[in-house]
Amino acid sequence: MTAIPRSGPAAPLRPTPLRPLRLDEVELSPESQLGRWQQLNRSATIPHCVTNLESSGVLDNFRRLLGESDKPFTGFWFADSDLGKTLEAVGWETGRSGDPSWKSFLDTAADLMERAQADDGYLDSYVQGTPDAVRWDNLKWSHEMYVAGHLIQAAVAVHRGSGDDRLLAIARRVADLLVATFGEGARDLYDGHPEVETALVELYRETGHEPYLQLAKRQIDLRGQGLLGEDRFGPQYFQDHAPVRETTEAIGHSVRHLYLAAGATDVAVETGDTELLEVMKKLWHSAFATKVYVTGAHGSRHRDEAYGDPYELPPDRAYAETCASIAAFQWGWRMLLATGDAQYAEEMERALYNAIAASTSQSGTEFFYSNPLQLRTGHDGSTEDSPDQRLSWYACACCPPNLARLVASLQAYVATTSEAGVQLQLLTAGAVRTTAPDGSPVELRVSGGYPWDGELGIEVSGGTAPWELAVRIPAWASEVQVAVDGTPVEEAVGSDSYLRITRDWSAGARVSLVLPMQVRAIAPHPRVDAVRGCLALARGPVVYCLEQADHDAVVEDIRLVPGELPQPRDVDGPDVVLTGSGVAVAPEVDELYVPGAAPRTTSPQPVDITAIPYYRWANRGPNAMRVWIPTTEKAV
Amino acid sequence: MTAIPRSGPAAPLRPTPLRPLRLDEVELSPESQLGRWQQLNRSATIPHCVTNLESSGVLDNFRRLLGESDKPFTGFWFADSDLGKTLEAVGWETGRSGDPSWKSFLDTAADLMERAQADDGYLDSYVQGTPDAVRWDNLKWSHEMYVAGHLIQAAVAVHRGSGDDRLLAIARRVADLLVATFGEGARDLYDGHPEVETALVELYRETGHEPYLQLAKRQIDLRGQGLLGEDRFGPQYFQDHAPVRETTEAIGHSVRHLYLAAGATDVAVETGDTELLEVMKKLWHSAFATKVYVTGAHGSRHRDEAYGDPYELPPDRAYAETCASIAAFQWGWRMLLATGDAQYAEEMERALYNAIAASTSQSGTEFFYSNPLQLRTGHDGSTEDSPDQRLSWYACACCPPNLARLVASLQAYVATTSEAGVQLQLLTAGAVRTTAPDGSPVELRVSGGYPWDGELGIEVSGGTAPWELAVRIPAWASEVQVAVDGTPVEEAVGSDSYLRITRDWSAGARVSLVLPMQVRAIAPHPRVDAVRGCLALARGPVVYCLEQADHDAVVEDIRLVPGELPQPRDVDGPDVVLTGSGVAVAPEVDELYVPGAAPRTTSPQPVDITAIPYYRWANRGPNAMRVWIPTTEKAV
């Protein structure tokens, strides 16, 4: 097996039901929601990350190893990973746009790392620059493999994006040292923070060098034996509570869990381990059937950044770390390729338009680390832990460059191919130019204002024989109208959520779809106690919220009347805002607890309601917000 | 001013509206709820704490300073405080019962501390036993004054209890060093964990030595200037976010906030600082009007052990630390004496019978650190942070000995005196023998099964002139029947919540009270989102809960019908258990989110319901529990 040239993230070497496209085979329309975001990432977010690598001292941490800075080590001991993720973003972005403007940054970083790297390949600016620190001596906390993983992923992305192999050489020396130190017959240990597993598989994919895959597999096989030792954070925090193949529930630190799951899925795919893949399906079900937020966010607890119990999903204290949503998106992609099951793409889309999108400001330069679904009137937003506004940077700056690397590669997740044909997984305007099953070129030109408009046009062309166009229809789209060249078709959306149309497309044809874009009320599972008596509003894949800036009534006082959902108002920018009527019921007494079976409120007064897309909240100064809105109906 | 002999906790030297009684002036009936608890504390909890001081290495931490142990320092760096609190418990218990059996433990501890204490008075087994540690160098985290504070409180309690002044001498040397190091003109600094403030005031009360009071005042005056320096926990965690006199909201680490408030109240009282006392009233209102649980627990966040925003009161992730409830109880006592306002005693009683009582097992030897109001089916109880059962001891063992010291002194909080007469603050069976305003002896003999039975008898006698008997009537007691010697009286419960009867009691008389003991539904303030659509059950001061052990239906599925509250069933032991009927509605589909405005459930089926006192939960193995029970009515 040899590497796929210019592949996007996580392109398996082994055959899988679905195959990813090359980086240059998909293009997002610059007018589309995702395309605009990718442009903003290029013009604002990536430059912001690069600037902050300097101002936060990440690059100086390398310079001091070389005697070129006399500053002390700055930031967390795993700050090198900020550089890794930013370089990965630059790698994808360069590959996508061909933009050469990052060249000097890439050279600066590669030069520093090349010179700082020890002769045997070791590279970690904290351990190398701290007299008392001993290599691999505290893997529970040190993040040495985590840092290595992000460097490896950066090198792979840069290589795929531009062919530049300077970073790849550095990363291979790091990986070779890992293999020598922790490979078969060497030390039995793993990192407290999973990440290197998926990176090693990606490096294997890019280089074809099997020992990288074997080390990734070994990390998965060893993990969960308690080799990291006891700690008051408990073994779940380190994902060391049970052997991976015996786990059945998403617990502990959510980002660590999700990175580990992505890596385990990579290993399962590349080693043909169907048993391990079945374990991953169970873990997915645990998270997505009992622990995910309606925004697609993961991890309900601030304490230990952890998953909660099943159905423990508080909207106000949702930790919902940006990195967890991104990790879940990445894991979903791997599961989609490995299984061909549309549910994974469905969840990727949910996270993308809601939890992930909400983490970046409209300016592209401010970020949420935690993404709550409610901000209360009187919230103390003075700490990084739960600010009331996105912050420019964080002491632990894992999220901003993580966003940058994801968004720079966003087009890679839009479509897949299979032995039958081409699948459109994310319904975004743009162009897909790939090959039909017979190897001949095909093209899809997708137009329409999704996710705001339900009408999509797909100009399909190419292929020398009939092939199957499959369009994933989101689960919320109960009725879809489909026509080819204006004629309604017989094909219906299958129980697998794909609309499959097999034609000879060589002469070109226009597939038209109309998805229902009614405003929808969403009810929670009855065991989600924290939002009892509330509903959420959605339209298409977009979840909405109420924000204080749009209301005279205190947001906490507003109640929705279920039969009277707010409706789209005249367009205001590209996004659709909903307006309508509800009622407000203010507290009648100040007491926290009163006799009686129901709270004491004033009688309901009609009020106007405005709901904005959740991802747009907190762009107008600090104010209260809520996704789950109490209704005037029985709670059940 | 001179010390009050054998006084209980926090007896002010300056005149206050209410005066505490001496330790030996009140006796709890051994059959009463509080009396049984105090017996259990003596027979089980205190011995358990003493045993654990050895097994957890707290005493060995001192022995190693003397070359009598070669073990490394064990436990948290503030482990000395476990010894301080246990000694305080022994002090109060010895004073109460005269039990000499603690003598050898007291001698052992005093001997170790006496010999370990540095010549200049410094005593901290962690700092003294850690080569790199420098005295007072890291007061933000070191807890050196906190440890000193608990030693001082222990010494005061032992001295008040038994007259033994050996510990007092050690504590005075510690305090004298604090005065020399941090007094006026010396170093401007305070401890990251407040505690020493109230201890210094208590030592001043016991010794009459003014510099101790001045240092306490100085600590309050200095605090909040940010002198502790920056930290990623944020200044609220250390209660260093604002000068004490400028604070208006209960925020940050709840135990630190409450200990600080108790100390500031002590300073306000002893320095006659009415302005500072007004600040304390505002802080109390902030906590008790927007942030306290219906069980009387404080601190809704596990992260940073902190208060949440106003109305952020999740029942499942309630941190509700035992020490916070105890600290609030202690602060309430100080506020009660300082103001004479019954609301403080009301909250003390709420916490005592619910949050505080729940933290100890029926065996008296297992404890909750965190006291949630809901434990979910499927809860992961594998960590100390949120176990599903009380634990025998904790890595940070602050709570068990804190309970021991409180319960050993419980009788001291039952009654007060004033210029008018005697006030019964806690309605418990027992005896009060004190003096009338004219100095002549008086006696109250209280009988009845409170808190289970609403009928109380008070045999009143003594005094040479008419004096006022005041009985605090809980706010939930809407109608109270009162008679003296069988004749209904004209006196009614005042708007200040006291029933005041002035008589010539010298010939003896029997006051009879009947409090309404109907089962009550309690509704939350409408902004307490986390329990929307739910009610809590209470009877008298006791809050109830549903526990899975009593139900066939899954606890999460049970709904209360507000008009049909469960009722007391035939007595089963001393506690009253409630039984009745409700309905169960099971989830109809597995999906976490479904279209529609209401959750999908099966149709309601009648079920039997059993509610037990909240404090008794988790004594029958791990199982689901909830205080707030969804109803079949509109949520509002």
UniProtKB/TrEMBL annotation, chains A, B:
Ranges of residues in domain Non-reducing end beta-L-arabinofuranosidase-like GH127 middle? 424-517
State the source organism's domain of life: Bacteria
Q: What range(s) does the Non-reducing end beta-L-arabinofuranosidase-like GH127 C-terminal domain occupy?
A: 519-630
Against InterPro entries, the record matches this protein to: 6-hairpin_glycosidase_sf (IPR008928), Beta-AFase-like (IPR049174), Beta-AFase-like_GH127_C (IPR049049), Beta-AFase-like_GH127_cat (IPR012878), Beta-AFase-like_GH127_middle (IPR049046)
Q: Which residues form the Non-reducing end beta-L-arabinofuranosidase-like GH127 catalytic domain?
A: 32-411
Please give the biological process terms from Gene Ontology that the record holds. carbohydrate metabolic process
PANTHER family in the cross-refs:
DUF1680 DOMAIN PROTEIN (AFU_ORTHOLOGUE AFUA_1G08910) (PTHR43465:SF2)
Q: What is this protein called?
A: Glycoside hydrolase family 127 protein
